[in-house]
Amino acid sequence: MARLPKLAVFDLDYTLWPFWVDTHVDPPFHKSRDGTVRDRRGQDVRLYPEVPQVLERLQGLGVPGAAASRTGEIEGANQLLECYLHSCPEWNESSNPNSRVGDICKGPNWP
Fold first, then answer.
1. Which InterPro entries match (predicted)?
2. Does residue 13 carry a catalytic annotation?
3. Confidence band (pLDDT; 50, 70, 90) for 90?
4. Is residue 94 part of a domain?
5. How far is 25 from 83, CA to CA, in rounded Å?
6. Which residues, including other chains, have CB under 8 Å from residue 106's CB and lie 6 or more apart?
7. 39 part of the active site
8. Looking at 11, 22, 34, 103, which residue is catalytic?
9. Mean pLDDT across 57-67
10. Which CATH number covers residue 32?
11. If we measure between CA atoms, which residue out of 14, 18, 44 comes closest to residue 30?
12. What is the rounded distance in angstroms from the CA atom of residue 17 to the CA atom of residue 70?
């Protein structure tokens, strides 16, 4: 069997979703009753269609995932990630005491 990576890191804009979170959508984001994530204007905000399957496959193989981005809209990007993590609880390891899902780094001076 091929060796698996120790960690899969994904950019956000134009990797997980087809837009720049700091220019093409308007935070804050919310999840509608039907499960659709929408921005302040009511515009649907979606992941690329392949993303859930890729993340589920990595999770099934035991490969942890992380997000990295240079966006200036840190709060909005984190809010979108939370919306999608709660849409797919199997991706959210926040109940794991060793998980770092909630860690937010705003620049190069993180610990």
1. HAD-like_sf, HAD_sf, MDP_1_eu_arc
2. yes
3. very low
4. no
5. 15
6. 74
7. no
8. 11
9. 89
10. 3.40.50.1000
11. 44
12. 14
